[in-house]
Structure formats: C-alpha cells, structure tokens
C-alpha cells in the first residue's frame, strides 16, 4: 500500500468516526484523554491539506531541479569551450591556470560549475588580449556572466523548494501519526464501551485498516 493511499484511508477513517461520534461522543469521551476527539477532528482536514501541499512541494522541487540542471549544463558547456580555446590556442601556462584549464569541474555540482565560470571571467579580466587572440569575445564573457547569475538564482530557488518540501512532508507525517494514534485510542475505548453491543462495536472496528495477512506456505504433498 502506497503512502498516499494510507493517508487517504486515514482521512476517510476520521470521516467515518465523525459520523459514529455524533451519537456516541458523550459515552466515549469519559474514557478518553482530554482533546483526543477534538484533536482528531482538527488533524483530519490538516492531514488532507498537508498531503496535498507535500505533493505540490515535491513537484515544485522536481521542476526546480530540472531548471537547475539545464542552467548548469548551459554554463558548463561555455566554460569548457573557453578552456578549450585557451588550451588549443597554446596560451601561456599562467593564463591557462587562471582560466582553470585542467581543473576538475562536475556539471552535476553547481558550485563546481560556478567556480569554473569565475575562473574564465577572472582570466579575461586579467588577460583580455590573450583570450581575445584565441577567439573569446566580450559577448562570450557577458554570456558566461549572465548564465552564472541565472544559475545562482535557480540554485537558490531549488534549495528553497527542497526545504519547503521537507517541511511539508514533516507536517504531513506528524498529522498522520496523530490521526492514527487518535483513531486507535477511540476504537479501543469503543471496545470497552460496546462490549455488550457487538453490532455497534463492529462499526468502530470497521474504521481500522485491514491488515493484509501473508499467505501460508503450501504444505508439501507426499
């Protein structure tokens, strides 16, 4: 059973108990701790809302990650092209070192790509004539600068959606646990209250999710 189905089942259980408690609340409440019923009623809608919010936050995070990956790949390609121009143009070792030629750079790591871009920008700032001599134009530098700023913005947004998704998931999981605990306590109290009323008790027990039992292993035939 997937988590989304478990959350939906918990919400439906709250709705079922709500109907039963319209008649039985006065008899069950003395058996329950303070706030159990009202807490469950408050957490039921919260569970539904937080489940939807957690799903939305995860989708936003995936979208932000795709945007981040695209921006990083675009900048990475231009940085590598700039390094390649420096290397193939046989520029001085000092220029190549400042430009980051030969330095490891991972497209999957934003900080690594941004460091690579900063190296190209620094090399152009220090040695503009040398880089111009191998084909690096001011327009290339402006594009690297703009892509760097864009990647930093996208990365910050991705980090924000990551934090938001974690917070929404934590809120949903906390609400789910409270709802499950409250349902279990209420049904347990109903077992005491309606011990002589099996039909009424059965309505409460029906609220609990059915545990799927493992099939017994087949008995070997002689």
Question: What is the element layout, followed by pairings?
Answer:
Layout: H1 3-28, H2 36-88, H3 93-99, H4 110-126, H5 128-133, H6 138-193, H7 198-205
Helix pairs in contact: 1-2, 1-6, 2-4, 2-6, 3-4, 4-6
Number of strands: 0
Percent in helix: over 70%
Determine the structural class based on helices, strands and strand pairing: mainly alpha
User: What is the CA-based Rg, rounded?
Assistant: 31 Å
Total helix count?
7
Distance between the termini: 37 Å
The structural domain count equals: 1
Oligomer: single chain
Written overview of the protein:
Helices cover 78% and strands 0% of the residues. The chain has 222 residues and is mostly helical. It is rod-shaped and about 95 Å long. The protein starts with a helix and ends in a 17-residue tail after the last helix.
Brief rundown of the structure:
This protein is about 80% helix and about 0% strand. It has helices spanning about 5-30, 35-90, 95-100, 110-125, 130-135, 140-195, 200-205.
Give the key terms.
single chain; 222 residues; mainly alpha; 78% helix
